[in-house]
Prior knowledge:
The structure is a homotetramer. By secondary structure, the first copy, chain A, is α/β, with parallel strands linked by helices. Chain A has helices spanning 39-45, 93-96, 129-132, 142-147, 151-160, 177-188, 201-210, 222-229, 245-253, 276-282, 297-305, 324-332, and strands at 2-8, 11-16, 28-36, 60-68, 80-83, 86-87, 108-109, 123-126, 133-135, 169-173, 193-198, 213-216, 235-240, 255-263, 272-274, 285-288, 317-320, 341-344. Strand 16 of chain A pairs antiparallel with strand 16 (285-288) of chain D, so a sheet runs across the interface.
Amino acid sequence: VRAVVLNGPHDVAVERIDDPTLTGDDGIIVAVDRTAICGSDLHYYEGHMGHTAGIRLGHEFLGEVVEAGPEVRSLRRGDRVFVSGVVGCGRCGPCAHGDPVRCDVGWQAFGTTPALPGGQAELVAVPAADAYARTVPEGLTTEQAVLLTDVLPTAHIGVTRADVRPGSTVAVVGLGPVGTLAVELALLFGAARVLAIDVVPERLSNAARLGAEPIDATAGDVVAQVRDRTAGKGAPCVVEAVGSDATLRDALLMCAVEGTVSVIGVNLNMQFPLPLAVLFSRNITVRTATASVPTTWPALIPLLQAGRLRPDDVFTHRLPLSAAAEAYATFAGRVDGCMKVLLDASA
Amino acid sequence: VRAVVLNGPHDVAVERIDDPTLTGDDGIIVAVDRTAICGSDLHYYEGHMGHTAGIRLGHEFLGEVVEAGPEVRSLRRGDRVFVSGVVGCGRCGPCAHGDPVRCDVGWQAFGTTPALPGGQAELVAVPAADAYARTVPEGLTTEQAVLLTDVLPTAHIGVTRADVRPGSTVAVVGLGPVGTLAVELALLFGAARVLAIDVVPERLSNAARLGAEPIDATAGDVVAQVRDRTAGKGAPCVVEAVGSDATLRDALLMCAVEGTVSVIGVNLNMQFPLPLAVLFSRNITVRTATASVPTTWPALIPLLQAGRLRPDDVFTHRLPLSAAAEAYATFAGRVDGCMKVLLDASA
Amino acid sequence: VRAVVLNGPHDVAVERIDDPTLTGDDGIIVAVDRTAICGSDLHYYEGHMGHTAGIRLGHEFLGEVVEAGPEVRSLRRGDRVFVSGVVGCGRCGPCAHGDPVRCDVGWQAFGTTPALPGGQAELVAVPAADAYARTVPEGLTTEQAVLLTDVLPTAHIGVTRADVRPGSTVAVVGLGPVGTLAVELALLFGAARVLAIDVVPERLSNAARLGAEPIDATAGDVVAQVRDRTAGKGAPCVVEAVGSDATLRDALLMCAVEGTVSVIGVNLNMQFPLPLAVLFSRNITVRTATASVPTTWPALIPLLQAGRLRPDDVFTHRLPLSAAAEAYATFAGRVDGCMKVLLDASA
Amino acid sequence: VRAVVLNGPHDVAVERIDDPTLTGDDGIIVAVDRTAICGSDLHYYEGHMGHTAGIRLGHEFLGEVVEAGPEVRSLRRGDRVFVSGVVGCGRCGPCAHGDPVRCDVGWQAFGTTPALPGGQAELVAVPAADAYARTVPEGLTTEQAVLLTDVLPTAHIGVTRADVRPGSTVAVVGLGPVGTLAVELALLFGAARVLAIDVVPERLSNAARLGAEPIDATAGDVVAQVRDRTAGKGAPCVVEAVGSDATLRDALLMCAVEGTVSVIGVNLNMQFPLPLAVLFSRNITVRTATASVPTTWPALIPLLQAGRLRPDDVFTHRLPLSAAAEAYATFAGRVDGCMKVLLDASA
């Protein structure tokens, strides 16, 4: 079968792989239908993650169960499932709660190590299926279910961990797919105002259309712009969805007294220069978030079913799996206003 | 000046009163512009509250400060203000937090005792003005500010105390003004589904228009209807906004395991027959709420200013103060689909 | 083997039963070592629960696994285990969290129906063992592990659901085993003051020894006594641990404004006369609690291991299983200051 | 009158000053009885805070009101008061809640700028007295009341913001006065285990006496020691009470997955090297805390009155104000096991 393989920086190819086998008695094999490219795949694509040649990419996918191990209880052959992009051992207490980040053994994401090949492929092996795979709920589109594997949960956790309350003012730094979904969720959770910050005009106008106040970072200091719009106080809730040092610094400086900065833009700097004196003078809380994906499903699924959350249009580009190289280049380069790419694994 | 006086059951009249005087150095006199009739006024109008002849009614009002006591710091002559319908002493710690319900001395509502004449009048004396009166914020309509004196805060506290979370299913029992606003707030706070229960077709269709699922109580057992729509589980969040024994019993029985019933429909029964065995088998929480009005303003005002909360159309009828008798009859009888009446105190 | 059987009101006997068999592939058989009598067993013993002749009693027990079904993962033959007194299906999401009360299928307690024979026996069948049985943690006494099956979790949930915070004043109504443990836990969780209410002098002096302020209910109106000791305000946190209408009414009336009454004394009255007007004037929260036993273990076990929680001396009487009839009579009659009885199932 | 003046690094002197005058109509003049030296005074004493010559030191003090401005309501001449070490404008909403850190105008600490001379003096001017000064509650010792001005509130906020729950394992890094009080409070709030880390043997043995597990930082890597004692997981709640880059780094690295690091050791580094990759892999929350002092009094005062919190013995040295130079040298050098110094302003 075919799979997307990373051969080096900016070099992905669709290659033949051996059919995957069950990871264990609690695993399943999924025949992938649709799979998406995530901003965090770009860390690998762009060569920021060290020696990763040969990695089979992809942690956002949906498909049909074609084989199920003997211990799997909740799924069977033929079920249409989506899978958490992050998984744990499946046997410990936290995994029973669907929280891979707390797993006693440790968490891993699909498509980031040789140990757990990714889902941008025709077939993928999924471990701990009872804990981490779920049949697609009635009333959800295929694309919504793909978004439940990572980006919607990440946006949900980012907004939740920013301590957003009804009536809050929320700043969202960065309007890529996760940031845009964070804007939508913050409004859905009762924020009075969402200040949506980016440099791309279409992303700003899209956020405005969702109900946010766009702040154009090319128009000057975003910290000053946020303070101007909040009577000098800053935003009590800040979601950082970029992952650069500069945007994180901005996020910290725009935060109001006793506020919270929730960081979901992945930044693996081991020496980020934290302005502690500012934090002390304002009693700020800083949180990072790797999404414990399944813990968010009980809130997100009913919102999708009720039509209150409509995230589908973060997908701007749809391509066959065979065009993965073009898809990565388009996504990485934001060609044609590309926000997020969905791949059809059958083509 | 003129004021609405309750002379007996179903007997209100506009009468001449002496000009009110300051209640103390921390008080103000307000020349009323608009004032509303509240469902709780009907408890008095219909004679359920014992001997209340001579009471000057009304706890929802807005107007201009025409006199301010020497200790008042935050307001001055000429300010346009709205006033919490419930007030405390103004000097204790809880009053400093704007929480009259916790006041060390005790709370009282305007228009319910001779000690605190109501605001359905041309002039009204307001005690503890720094704690309980506020200038109308920029961007709010007059009608929105009137709704901030009682019904919006009550709906807010009712929804908040029902433990509504993003993704929750919420049942609202009773779609009068407060129930209707509770529907709107529950959706604004991220409820996935709101089951809106009443017997009046217009109220049901109005709730549906807001985004709720209407449940017609004339069509059969509402508990069964709620359970049918929730896979047998019931609703984890229930807001009771009627105040009768029967509706409260329904609210308790439709509540899901570990759920919360928040009671904002005033019911002063000292022997309500509580089905404890049901509560025990389901670990239910029951809360009553008298609104600590000003504590809700920091959340509600930005939502109104941002246009995310649009409560104005709960007012279905607008009449001059001189027509108060007609207004009460219309409201009590739900004549012409009457939901809520606004009185113009200048006419 | 032998088991305690309820033959009628005040009539229990140790009788021969057939060896129990596995309830299913996820079940275990436990050879009981120690088992306790619970206050809720008395509801059956005293004939308050309808037709219950033939019930095999007991939901607090500890012993050795002598057989394990093929699906059981976490336990094996020879393990020394304690078991949640309340169990669910073991397969649904809430059961994965150890929360039988939310179980999709419904919860049941051992020893209360023919469907789930109790643990006051030499052998007992335990369903859903991975979810509801646990090996005895290092550092715990046998008696502490028995207390983890019901009364400590109930006391924990009762105190937690009373919204106890560091610095709180807590009233505990009823100083039986659960109430006494609630006193100990409230102090351990940082209560500044615990007002401990009962009529039995030894129970009052025991609570005083733990650090509480005893209130003798024989000395006059307990509501007045609580208000006298709280500057008229009442207690913001109240734990009702008796289960009578009179004590529940007292608990409600002694509660402070915005306070919480947590009811753990089982009361199955379907028409308890709730004084709603009092609740409305004070914004009181009322909660009932059936213990979702395993959810409390992560907090309780480390407190026991660290020696910070020392509940062992609620056991005042230790008897062989063969003396069950005497044990029940002693417990029911509070003979010789009996607080709680531990039975040795090997004797 | 006399006051302690900082003339340069390691150079404090008791000097004659003019009698202070009221800061405004809402201020008081306090004749100081007792005043303490705080670890944060050392930042000034040791010359880390830039040009501070001439500063009159001290933000922990207690004394008698000798003059009260005409707007002061809650205090009068002759009252014995303690004062929040940090104050705000006294007029805004947050100040009405006793939260100087959120003050609309900004907060300041006594004894840190010429604008707000300190309380290590015979007389001190206190602004916004209704919000920030309080009569000494019945049942408190003088020394307890002095501790309420800063270090107990800081320890309380540090522990609270570490998300300590009953049953938690808490690591406290640094056992100076604030760290030692954090140990005591963490245990009082129900922590199962407190890992208390320092290099000074007496401080470690003192923490052990309070009920903590001492960890000697001179015996090797403290992160490894904490992980060894927690089955490799680290501590879910960490309180950093030193203020150095090295200890903060340790605090972050010893934190468990989904844990919280609460930083109360003042560290004004604007470029602290934050190990973001570690935070991301574990979903850690980091909080800094400047104490909003009066907000902690409602919890701390009843705990002191009930004798459940016994902090007095953090004072190891008592000296007259006239010996301030010796007192600072003793405190800075930890001479004779000095933990904290109390000065008698009458001598």
